[in-house]
Amino acid sequence: MTRANQKKIVQFAGFLSLRLAVVLVLAILVLFLYDIIKKGGGVISWEFLTTAPRKGMTQGGIFPAIVGTFFVTLITAVLAIPLGMCAAIYLNEYAWQNVLTRLIRLSIRNLSGVPSIVYGLFGVILFVNALKFGTSILSAGLTLGLMTLPWTITASEEALKAIPNSYREGALALGATKWQMIRTNVLPYAVPGMLTGTVLGLARAAGETAPIMFTGAAFFLPYLPKSLSDQFMALPYHLYIMSTQHHAILQVRPIAYGTALVLIAFVLGLNMTAVILRYRLRRKYR
Amino acid sequence: MSSERPPIKFRTEDLDFYYGPTRALKNVTIDCYDKKVTAIIGPSGCGKSTFIRTLNRMNDVIAGTRVEGRILLDGQDVYAPDVDVVELRRRVGMVFQKPNPFPKSIYDNIAYGLRINGMRDKKAVEATVEKSLRGAALWDEVMDRLDENAFALSGGQQQRLCIARALAVEPEVILFDEPCSAIDPIATAKVEDLIEHLKTSYTVVIVTHNMQQAARVSDYTAFMMLGELVEFDATEKIFTNPANKLTEDYITGRFG
Fold it and tell me: I need a labelling partner for B200 at 20 to 30 A (CA). Which of A81, A127, A230, B101 fits?
């Protein structure tokens, strides 16, 4: 075998394994979606999406869970987006890069790896008990917010790092203050990227069960939350109950699949928002 | 000889500069004369860029750096505690090695410096934008497409846009940090013509890799090596009859 042929074969084998990896990942995803759509698609109807569960949650819809997840995610966003962005701006633009900031950064990275159940328990101690918010949509939203913060900070920092230093130096050289430089020549180009990462973090939070099950999510509520101190139903927790805790578990299986489908659609919607944001960013500034 | 020299705009006295423990500038004493072009030449890593970036305190933003000695602008120490570094940078403009237009329209690139310095009057901004673009010999090429993104310009045009942007805030000194190293020869010629023209109104300091460029555009030349000033004199003198053997070896291309 000539050396040239050998090189070609090695290359072919290399690319083939990469291609197979992609096919495998796609196949798993497609199979997964197919299963959920097949088993849950049947129950999706206008009624399912807009009415509350009835008859011990064996009939009716999941409207309160949709509303609950929407609002708890909103609270998460209100906490995690501004705080995360501000922390990232401080870390990346203001703080000197030294041992202390490296340590802070390392801690933040580690926090994003802490299991969500730990955040849940921490939320009980801090928000439910110490701050006396009780088991409520506020406590749950704040707990999810805490869990999302490390992601938001990291993603926002990456977006800031992507802004060329020449924009910063160029602005400073014209007599801009550091704040003017950040506000007018860094943030406008970084914010779309920061939002992209943040929204991905939110999508992850929206699908979490553990952090909300002790802090505010209810098994079943005949009414929608009217204030921040009310409990709420949420899609992931509802799914958990319908698939493991319900007394008539086989009977409600289609409802569980339907809930899963709606939850996936919700998360997918958030992710799509992130993709669209990023696409717009590229078109505008590249 | 010194009696015929023009007034001093910038003066560095025994300037030392450290990146952490590394000493990048050693006892550099250079005078930059008012409304003259001073070129800084020398091999890569000799400290030319570090030197020019101390003049408008651009190095402040790099962590772990330290300055010793004095830098005097119109006799006033720019590193004195009461100096407003923002105002210093307004007075001492800078053009960078790689053209760095902002991702805004051509118009907004120039107007940027005006707006951050508090110019609100639209008419005045408009007039200054035009004046600056004319000053940078770019007006004729861009007058009918001021709303286009600055990235649409060629490299040479981008660099002249950056010069126009620096001119807009009415500095007294303009620092050029190897302004032509990323653009083609024709664009380089245009920038050189421009520098020649600029010295009627501004004091210019230019760092360059290109000795012919230093010879063409500058009135005074400083030759640096390994962070030290080897020789500083009138450009003509440096290029025809250098006092130092190292200078001669460098400009005749024996090393570098």
Answer: B101
Same domain, A39 and A78: no
Total domains, chain A = 2
Beta-carbon separation of A166 and B116 below 8 A: no
B66 Cβ neighbours under 8 A, 6+ residues apart: B17, B18
Does residue A165 sit at the B interface (CB-CB below 8 Å)?
no
A180 and A269 assigned to the same domain: yes
Length of chain B: 256
What CATH number is given to the structural domain containing B51? 3.40.50.300
Q: Which residues constitute the domain of residue B219?
A: 2-98+174-251
Q: Which residue in B90, B96, B112 is closest to A166 by CB distance?
A: B96
Q: B100–A172: do the CB atoms touch at under 8 Å? A: no
pTM of the model as a whole: 0.83
Among A277-281, B85-89, B214-218, B224-228, the least confident range: A277-281
Other beta carbons within 10 angstroms of residue A20's beta carbon come to 10
**A210: domain CATH number?**
1.10.3720.10
Residues 6+ apart with CB under 8 A from A187: A89
Instruction: Tell me the ipTM for this assembly.
Output: 0.90
Question: What is the spatial distance between Cα B62 and Cα A196, in angstroms, rounded to a whole number?
Answer: 29
* Rounded Cα distance, A280 and A196, in Å: 11
- Higher-confidence residue of B119 and A280: namely B119
Within a domain: residue B216? yes
Per the structure, the count of domains in chain B is: 1
Beta bridge partners of B234: B220
Q: Which of A256, A221, A258, A250 is nearest to A238 (CA)?
A: A256
Please check whether residue B107 lies inside any domain of the structure: no
Q: What is the mean pLDDT of residues A41-50?
A: 83
Residues A218, A136 share a domain: yes
Q: What is the pLDDT of residue A169?
A: 94
Asked if A109 and A27 sit in the same domain, the reply is no
**Largest Cα span, chain A:** 76
Percent of chain B with pLDDT over 70: 98
- Band (pLDDT 50/70/90 cuts) for residue A47 is confident
Q: What is the dihedral of CA A221, A227, A231, A234, to 10 degrees?
A: 80
Together in a domain, A115 and A7: no
Q: How many CB pairs under 8 A join A and B?
A: 67
Task: Output the average pLDDT for chain A.
Answer: 88
Instruction: Mean pLDDT check: name the lowest of A30-44, A76-90, B99-113.
Output: A30-44
Question: Measured in whole angstroms, how far is the alpha carbon of residue A25 from the centre of its chain?
Answer: 21
| Structural domain containing residue A98 | 46-285
Residue B220 lies in a domain: yes
φ and ψ of A187, to 5 deg: -60, -45
* H or E element that contains B223: strand B220-225
Torsion (CA) B83, B86, B91, B97 in degrees, nearest 10: 120
Whether residue A255 sits in one domain with residue A166: yes
Residue A81 forms contact with B (CB below 8 Å): no
